[in-house]
């Protein structure tokens, strides 16, 4: 596989990866933007980030087509087996992961329902759903699966968890009031992935939507008495508007924990502090642990 990067100073602007005979495709996000992604024996992609103009440079490099410790086996149904050398995954975790990646909803539900015969619903989520979603998220970060697949895995998990975890389950009634929104822009896929993962873990989340101004989000958060506010961004100008959101909340005398995520915050890991957020999640699968830490601080 060949890789081409266009640079502006120390900031990468464009990144191209090429392999012949692309079979499957999708869209994923990386630390440098969104990628049109193909997996299997082929990959073609590009990353785009918006930065200040500067000297443009190009870098050409080659890299292995797939990590050596990872193997994906395919048949006419798509991915049907995942093996990770050196990892001691039990049969149930392997089956659940394969069912998710194969988008086999009935099989996913069956695995979790069978698991509840020997453990509590929350334990099923903590020992099966979350670890598998974390691993799938790691594979997306490595470029082994598309962002759209990661999103679908979260949605399927959410549907299955809803069946084993009633709305009245204690985990959902004792949590703080949480909402998620996209500030200014209308790129909602990242928000939907985070929403699905959190729902899969038993959290109730209010979805405020996309393309909202700082004032609109502040007003809605005040009305709904939100305690933890998740903000997803794709563009740098949207990320910078988090500072306006914090000021809008402060002007109303409202103290809400703001947790941010998205490409701009991965570019600059200190940006979340500069805009007045309380925490950031580097990737969607980290949202659970970040929220749990925020809950501990609020207790």
Description:
The protein is α/β, with parallel strands linked by helices and 299 residues long. It has 3 domains: 2-62, no CATH class; 70-164, Methyltransferase, Methionine Synthase (B12-binding Domains), Chain A, domain 1, CATH 1.10.1240; 170-298, Rossmann fold, CATH 3.40.50.280. It has 12 helices and 13 strands. The strands form 4 sheets. It has a 5-stranded parallel beta sheet, sandwiched between helices. It has a 4-stranded antiparallel beta sheet with strand order 5-2-1-6, with no helix packed on it. A two-stranded antiparallel sheet has the order 3-4. A hairpin with a 2-residue loop joins strand 7 and strand 8 (78-84). Helix 4 (147-164) runs parallel beside helix 6 (189-200) and helix 7 (214-224) packs across helix 9 (242-251). The longest helix is centred in the middle third of the chain and has 22 residues, at 121-142. One of its GO terms (biological process) is homocysteine metabolic process. This is Methylmalonyl-CoA mutase C-terminal domain-containing protein. GO terms for molecular function: cobalamin binding; metal ion binding; methionine synthase activity. Pfam families: B12-binding, B12-binding_2.
